[in-house]
């Protein structure tokens, strides 16, 4: 997604350099003693034009947010064009429905009869997106000049640093639809909201729903309470966790602007108590209520500035209904356990010197559901605290276990929603750590049962985990394997021998469960179903513990299994990447086989 089109950026630079040239001409007419001051002004304009930091410059962006448009594209964009000539907006955001339910207005749009004067961003409202729009998004095509899709559940940071978090749609049940289309449908789940928790200090939060309790402590009058939308606790949780500077929502017949409010009763360690402004915009053309809101946004926050007039305490504390999670660990990670892009953060502090290279942020993490680039077509199921996805570049193929009745790779990843390098560091509020482990275990057992059922109890499973305090986004990888190899101890022996060959620490017959106070470890679950004379399943967990500075190969588990299965050429996942069509075929087959065992349905 090109958040700031090159032609827009180029024009901005041309405008600024044009202003600079005008001032240069003026310098020639000024006395010498004014020259230094004029040069300082020129430096500011040049730095601004190049998007560089200036020690004293405070760059403000002009934004305008619109409520439900409901397909009235020509009149709303004509109005924006008129306003733009006087205000020179940087961008517009549609907080509600851009398109109507009948979708007929898209004909007028793609006939070229609508002029969009400056970059405009939209998300999913309460209406499904038109299929023609979905097709363009799926093909990564330009939707329309100056029109950009934010995503339904995602985080977007513009090239100038404006951070926008979106959660579109209403609360709903995703079980009746194909997850490959889920991102375009007008519903979301509580798990979707949780997936956005890492986006602390967002500039703008967009939700189609109101947060529960937002009017607590407010003196803003509402003439008719029946016009107020329902509030949802998971939206309050989201707002309280990420602490946006602005939170926008929609209400068809009502404009509501709450007093600014503190997000906490006390300042944080940095001496800052984030202030949030909540606004809900009316729909365009349906009432005389305000349907758009224009404002200036400065990306620099001055903690010494006085609070705005009328600021209140947090609405959440009045209702005492919010689980205030501490900021989750935002150390991101690459999806398949590879180091992230190296980024030199400089040497301004000890921490920066010790952590010179940082992995990419959560918005770039391919385990995070908030990442707009996440391959959602690989996802099978989303629970309350974790989700299930088939692997990209699977070790096993559709042919590996076809003779056992498994005609798809069945290499599966079980991933927590929480941004955490290991289970032990998941915040412990409301037993989040134990709940995550329990649900992940439930996914593991469900997949084991599915594999056994579809293979006539001929296949068992191996599940492994790499838990490191400075590691990747924790996840479990599950791979089917002959139950005979498991039952006869050959799989366990292979792992122990490989560890010995590499001079790794020895495996212990111990399960660290959530791993609290256990340090770093590699955990392996071996499971085989009942078969023949064996009337009971075989289940065992062995764990290798190692020190923080120990050089443990992230490919250890896959390497051992590749040798056991005769798939050494598939040791590296990057060598096994499939086409999207192949991936979609595999997920369809997996979901069909797993449906009977999927507890999220």
From TrEMBL:
<dbReference type="GO" id="GO:0071014">
    <property type="term" value="C:post-mRNA release spliceosomal complex"/>
</dbReference>
<protein>
    <recommendedName>
        <fullName>CwfJ domain-containing protein</fullName>
    </recommendedName>
</protein>
<dbReference type="InterPro" id="IPR040194">
    <property type="entry name" value="Cwf19-like"/>
</dbReference>
<dbReference type="InterPro" id="IPR006767">
    <property type="entry name" value="Cwf19-like_C_dom-2"/>
</dbReference>
<dbReference type="Pfam" id="PF04677">
    <property type="entry name" value="CwfJ_C_1"/>
</dbReference>
<feature type="domain" description="Cwf19-like C-terminal">
    <location>
        <begin position="360"/>
        <end position="488"/>
    </location>
</feature>
<dbReference type="Pfam" id="PF04676">
    <property type="entry name" value="CwfJ_C_2"/>
</dbReference>
<dbReference type="InterPro" id="IPR006768">
    <property type="entry name" value="Cwf19-like_C_dom-1"/>
</dbReference>
<dbReference type="GO" id="GO:0061632">
    <property type="term" value="F:RNA lariat debranching enzyme activator activity"/>
</dbReference>
<feature type="region of interest" description="Disordered">
    <location>
        <begin position="333"/>
        <end position="358"/>
    </location>
</feature>
<feature type="domain" description="Cwf19-like protein C-terminal">
    <location>
        <begin position="538"/>
        <end position="600"/>
    </location>
</feature>
<dbReference type="GO" id="GO:0000398">
    <property type="term" value="P:mRNA splicing, via spliceosome"/>
</dbReference>
